[in-house]
TrEMBL record:
Region annotation (CPSase) ranges: 1-193
Pathway: Amino-acid biosynthesis; L-arginine biosynthesis; carbamoyl phosphate from bicarbonate: step 1/1; Pyrimidine metabolism; UMP biosynthesis via de novo pathway; (S)-dihydroorotate from bicarbonate: step 1/3
PANTHER family in UniProt: CARBAMOYL-PHOSPHATE SYNTHASE SMALL CHAIN, MULTIFUNCTIONAL TRYPTOPHAN BIOSYNTHESIS PROTEIN-RELATED
Organism per entry: Dentiradicibacter hellwigii
Annotated gene: carA
Catalytic reaction equation(s): hydrogencarbonate + L-glutamine + 2 ATP + H2O = carbamoyl phosphate + L-glutamate + 2 ADP + phosphate + 2 H(+); L-glutamine + H2O = L-glutamate + NH4(+)
Name of the featured protein: Carbamoyl phosphate synthase small chain
NCBIfam families noted in UniProt: CPSaseIIsmall (TIGR01368), PRK12838.1 (NF009475)
């Protein structure tokens, strides 16, 4: 038995001409973006609210999505940023002690168009064979020819600067740093370091993990010049994850170059990693279908240790372009792509995957400790 036939019709049209027919389990209307697949088995709410998915339609390969509903806590940003959602099926009944609304109600509230009831395995194989495709989701009133032409008109993410689109408009102090455990809520301890975090689409769990490690955080807009950041006299600078192509973010690349020259401890995640690489003189390239999932093996090149990591990126740093002074620290064991770098002449390093991933895996969480160590080792200001 399935709930789906009670929902209005929806289609997903791809730029290659393929059309999938299913049911509209979110908002009605039209959504256009790059269609990608994510293999995570949990965390749909964190995925939908991760600003790195801006202009992307996410297909979840796990077949039952929505089982635990949605709540007011599991937001990685203030809103839903994914352009659309594609799933195989909804549960007949969603249930969890933290649930406040069902996934369809949540999607409707945030205006996210979503389709269910299509063969997500077939779609995933198509994306793996042909590469990420431009697509159009249409829900409610269906006009197949229009959906196909909308999909074909999407220019693709290459060359698209989206970090400044999703970033905060004004600087703010981040305060929520406590942790929940079986013993209850533990407020964050006293701050030892002041970190300025660039918001290119920052995930909240990164801010939480830094606060829990004794950082006071000032979050600044993507286009903040280095001179403004230096006025805070920070102990360290964090470069966040974010959507789109890193290459057109010249404002960030310029700022990072100046901060590198100032020898400020710096840590970058995902888009932040790619921007650190660009600022150091390396190049980034678009991947065929990217990495989106929570079971990606990554090797630490200094210890040989293999870690299971969470990943979400469609661009990557080309290892052939690493200049002198920039060292590879991690590689993907799925495809050998670069996963981490470190400057040999400045206290700056970065990681392509997501050490902050909530609910996990947590194998790479100690990269946050490494950032703290670099700030502790920096000469007094
Ligand atoms: N999660 C991210 O920061 C993604 C980085 C970049 N937008 C990419 O797709 O590669």
């Amino acid at each position: 038995m399935s709930l789906l036939p009670s929902f209005p019709p929806a289609i997903l049209a791809l730029a290659d001409g393929t059309v999938f027919r299913g049911y509209a389990v979110g908002a009605e209307g039209l959504a256009v973006g790059e269609v990608v697949f994510n293999t995570a088995m949990s965390g749909y709410q964190e995925i939908l609210t991760d600003a790195s998915y801006c202009r992307q339609i996410v297909t979840l390969t796990y077949p039952h999505i929505g089982n635990t509903g949605c709540n007011d806590e599991d937001f990685e940003s203030p809103s839903c940023f994914a352009a659309g959602l594609v799933i195989r099926d909804l549960p007949l009944r969603a249930e969890n002690w933290r649930m406040q609304e069902s996934l369809p109600d949540f999607l409707k509230r945030f205006g996210v168009v979503a389709i269910a009831g299509i063969d997500t395995r077939q779609l995933t194989r198509l994306l793996r064979d042909k590469g990420a495709q431009a697509g159009c989701l249409m829900a409610g009133e269906i006009d197949e020819a229009k959906a196909l032409s909308e999909a074909r008109a999407f220019p693709g993410l290459a060359g698209m600067d989206l970090a400044r689109v999703v970033s905060t408009e004004a600087p703010y102090e981040w305060r929520d740093g406590g942790t929940w455990s079986l013993e209850g809520y533990q407020p964050a301890g006293e701050a030892k370091f002041h970190v300025v975090a660039y918001d290119f689409g920052v995930k909240r769990n990164i801010l939480r993990l830094l606060t829990q490690r004794g950082c006071r955080l000032t979050v600044v807009p993507a286009q903040t010049p280095a001179a403004e950041v230096l006025k805070y006299r920070p102990d360290g600078v964090f470069l966040s994850n974010g959507p789109g192509d890193p290459e057109p973010c010249a404002y960030a690349v310029d700022a990072i170059r100046e901060l590198l020259a100032a020898k400020i401890p710096m840590f970058g995640i995902c888009l932040g990693h790619q921007l650190l690489a660009l600022a150091s003189g390396a190049r980034t390239v678009k991947m065929k279908f990217g990495h989106h999932g929570t079971n990606h093996p990554v090797q630490d090149l200094s210890t040989g240790k293999v870690m299971i990591t969470s990943q979400n990126h469609g661009f990557t740093v080309d290892p052939e372009t690493l200049p002198d002074g920039l060292k590879a620290t991690h590689i993907s064991l799925f495809d050998g792509s670069l996963q981490g770098i470190e400057r040999t002449d400045a206290p700056a390093f970065s990681f392509q995957g997501h050490p902050e991933a909530s609910s996990g895996p947590h194998d790479v969480a100690d990269l946050f400790d490494r950032f703290i160590e670099k700030m502790a080792a920096a000469p007094a200001k």
